[in-house]
Amino acid sequence: MSTVDREAVLVHQQAVLAKFGELALRSDDLDEILTEACRLVGEALRTDMAKVMELQDDGTTLLVRAGVGWPPGVVGHATAKAESGSSEGYALQTGEPAVSRDIATEKRFRYPQFIVDAGVKALVNVVILGGKGRCPYGILQVDSLEPRDFSRPDTEFLRSYANLLAAAVERLRIAAETRRHAISLRESEERYRTLATQIPQLVFTSSSSGERTWGSPQWVEYSGIPEKDSLGLGWLAAIHPDDRPATMAAWAACETTGEFSVEHRIRRAVDQTYRWFQSRATPVRAEGRIVGWLGTSTDVEDQARVRKALERSGEELEARVLERTAELQAALDTLHRESRERSRAEERLRHSEKLKAIGQLTGGIAHDFNNMLQAIIGCLSMIRVRLQQGRPTEVMGLVERAERGAVRAAALTHRLLAFGRQQTLEPRLVSLDTIARDMEDMIRRAVGASINVELNLSDGKWLAMCDPSQMESALLNLCVNARDAMPNGGWLTISTTEMVLAEAELSLFEDAQPGRYCCIAVSDTGVGMSPEVLSKAFEPFFTTKPAGQGVGLGLSQIYGYVRQSGGIVQVDTVPGKGTTVRLCMPAPAERDDNEVSGRDTGKTIMLVEDEEIVREVTAEQLREQGYRVLEADSGPAALRLLNAGARFDLLISDVALPGGMNGREVADAIKARYADIPVILVTGYAPGDALSDMEVIRKPFPPEVLAEHVRAKFED
User: Which residues fall within 8 angstroms of residue 217, CB to CB, at 6 or more apart?
Assistant: First the structure.
């Protein structure tokens, strides 16, 4: 093509653009614009066919919305998919023109069937853009029935033409949307005004500064001010003069706060009276800023009267409440005072009952103790007589009887200390099976012939760590309780078990450690215990027996002994069927079978004891064992011997001493100078915690027990 021809084509294309631009600005018919756009672009590029394909809402389907030169049934019906591999998809995805000079040899694109059926040989298409921020409108495509090489000027013209078409489409869309908004706004205003005339509130609209722009017919009727006179600030004439400053202040603040609310009085035209109204307004916004207000005024005169009446009633009620509160406080003080007096009276009663029980207890103990002393004194007197008569062979039996009486007296004091869980225990590894078997005969005699006694022993290998004498006393006490629970006879079963208790099973017992336990249980078929009785069973002085038959110390003594030994007590009972009391004692993993044997001589012992007869007897026992003994009657006396140069290998001291120092303090003073000196403390009674790190022997004790402790110290 010559230069002249090319210039002529360009001039013709520019004329087509101008002609179409005039149509795009003038016409409001989208179909006319699209169809004319296809005709003119085909004329400008001298092609057989052209079409506008509109992108549907799914974003991939293109509908032939308008076209020229196409067979019937294509325009308005035929579709194509803007997929990868199609010329339409290429144009939409890249924004570049898709040019196919000969679709028969084209390898890049696939083509819709309706294009092939129409005999199209070549085509070029460009994107029709959408408005700002919107998806493309679609594709403008020019088709040729012959292969054709569309030039760069052709594609540039087609781009410009598509942009002009896009502007026309967007103009029509905006116009249509504006018309819809205008219609919607008119309909909304009509609905609003209709609604405003139907409600009892006084409805109004105002500018952003509070100047009235419209008032409902109710406003005109109530205030008597014509609507035209209410516009601007004319409506203020109906507001009570005293309320106008607060009303205008609320309008001044509402543009900042975004809320208008005020209570004021509005004059009623019919009788010229003022009534209280609550006026509220909601902002109308455009592009984020307030351009007006829509509000209502509601009559709250009746509510205001009620509120004032309530305020007056509230003040009167508050005064009555204060008066009544003072009366109630005085009554409460009286109740507290009476409650304290009642508590003190109950405490005095409990104390009196305990003193009575303690009197019964001490009377019984004194009786038993005097019997034992009588036996001891009698035996000693008879020993003197036999020795004077020259009959020494008969002395040994009397000595053994005196010793048995002394042991029984010691056991009695230990049981008394067990009541307070403060006895000094002598625990060692023992078999609960052995204790049960050894006491079977005594238990049978204690419970009587009407009670059938059965032993159900586990013959286990574990040994319990406990004081055997206290365990024997506890077992006998439980069997006597079981006998008393079966006044008409029954079965009493003594059983032993071995078990491992977890922490959860010991949660009710403070300081109890999880692990192995040996248990001995006493079960009866007696009357059982109610929940109320069970809750108090271990309380000191609690008893269900008739007066004179018990002071309520048995179970509390047992509980004190078991808990002091690191064990637990479990009780299972069913009223009318019987009770099982189970004592579980710790069972160490290994048994200590070391035996103390042999005698050491050439050793010196410092003996500190304030009771002369006890000191003399103990010193004699030690000397009999082959030890040298230094005697002192107090802590200061022992320290004086030490300061004078006395040397010794072991300290044995009573805990309770005169002279301002107890046995523990004497031991600490001596060990401060000679840290390796072994110490044995002796006590008839002392709290266990104070001596927990010291070796302690409990009085009274036989000579062999003292000898065993001394030998063990020297072996260490």
Answer: 197
CA 559 – CA 474 distance, rounded (Å)? 9
Helix H or strand E segment including 555: helix 554-564
- Stretch 137-143: mean pLDDT: 92
| Predicted TM-score (pTM) above 0.85 | no
Q: Contact, 144 vs 115, CB < 8 A?
A: no
Q: pLDDT tens, 565-619?
A: 888 898 999 999 999 999 999 998 753 433 333 344 579 999 999 988 889 889 9
Domain span at 462: 421-586
User: Among residues 633, 652, 632, which one has the least CA distance to residue 642?
Assistant: 632
User: Strand ranges (DSSP E) for 575-627?
Assistant: 578-586, 604-608
pLDDT tens readout for residues 24-34: 777 888 888 88
Q: Which residues make Cβ contacts (< 8 Å) with residue 150, sequence separation at least 6? A: 45, 99, 101, 122, 124, 142
For residue 75 the two structure tokens come to 């325009």
Strand partners, 285: 290
**Would you say residue 400 lies in a domain?**
no
508, two tokens? 């009710």
The pair of structure tokens assigned to 684 is 């008839």
CATH number, domain at 128?
3.30.450.40
3-state secondary structure 380-430: HHHHHHHHHCCCHHHHHHHHHHHHHHHHHHHHHHHHHHHHCCCCCCCCEEE
On average, the pLDDT of the chain sits at 83
Could you tell me if residue 467 is inside a domain?
yes
Q: Which residue has the tokens 């067979």?
A: 71
**How many domains, in total, are found in the chain?**
4
Q: Smallest Cα–Cα separation from 557: which of 410, 415, 674, 361? A: 415
Joined tokens for residue 624:
């009999």
Verify that 581 and 433 share a domain, yes or no.
yes
Order of strands, sheet of 568-574, starting from the edge strand that comes earlier in the sequence: 451-456, 490-501, 515-524, 578-586, 568-574
Q: What is the pLDDT of residue 500?
A: 87
Q: Is the Cβ–Cβ distance between 566 and 590 less than 8 Å? A: no
DSSP state letter for 307: H
Instruction: Name the β-bridge partners of 710.
Output: none
Distance CA 710, CA 716 (A): 10
Same domain, 609 and 569: no
Strand, helix or coil for residue 619: helix
One-letter amino acid at 649 equals D
Which H or E element spans position 452? strand 451-456
Task: Judge whether residue 502 has pLDDT over 90.
Answer: no
232: left (phi over 0), alpha (psi -120 to 50) or beta: left
Smallest CA-to-CA distance from 447 within 487, 474, 388 is with 487
CB 465 within 8 A of CB 587: yes
Cβ-contact 578, 528 below 8 angstroms: yes
Which secondary structure element, helix H or strand E, spans residue 142, and what is its range? strand 138-144
Query: 17 and 161: one domain?
Result: yes
Number of Cβ within a 10 Å radius of residue 398:
18
Give residue 214's Cα distance to chain centre: 60
